[in-house]
Amino acid sequence: MMPELGKYAFAVLSSYGVTIVLLSVIVLASVRRARKVRAALDEIESRRGS
Hints:
Helix content is about 80%, strand content about 0%. The chain is built from 1 helix and no strands.
């Protein structure tokens, strides 16, 4: 259930929207970086083991 926001509805809802978008970008960037780091670590470990 949504509370009545009155004249502040646009500001509040756009703030929520921007927050959700930014959090999504941060999560996606973190996952992408983790994959790159994991791949680099696997490469280093495979060279070291050979």
